[in-house]
Amino acid sequence: xxxxxxxxxxxxxxxxxxxxxxxxxxxxxxxxxxxxxxxxxxxxxxxxxxxxxxxxxxxxxxxxxxxxxxxxxxxxxxxxxxxxxxxxxxxxxxxxxxxxxxxxxxxxxxxxxxxxxxxxxxxxxxxxxxxxxxxxxxxxxxxxxxxxxxxxxxxxxxxxxxxxxxxxxxxxxxxxxxxxxxxxxxxxxxxxxxxxxxxxxxxxxxxxx
Length: 209
What we know:
This protein is α/β, with parallel strands linked by helices.
């Protein structure tokens, strides 16, 4: 089934399924029912079955799910069976923190290049990667496959950089800048607005009963 028929809510739950199934594998669990998975995840068993049925089901009534098989199939649905080459725009504190997060490689995400406009950062190393001048961005994309571009620069710089990325042919943008990007329909953007996440948490604390 094509992605256009899958709701955003289901897509956002897929990484949670993947993470919990990975934990089950680590514990040596070979088979699990939707009810048992429900108790671990805090999602109803009915919701789990509905979500997975969008992609074929993967289980048998009264038999449950094979954990390894389900883990691998959800991984394929999310493209985890393929290497994703990432470039990063911005070598500041946030960019460096993201680059230093080792779990990305385990998931098949490889940061191949980092760009910045600050002369003090250009030529320095982040996790063994030499920071490049952002003026060489298009040239790099032309010569190297790029699946995702991560933007970790101030919002006033993010929009023109996103335009450059789109024109250069990048189809996936992981946006940490506090601004909404206007991109063509064939370009996927995942926004990570940290302050909005904190404000949502603040609301939940304030209204907790």
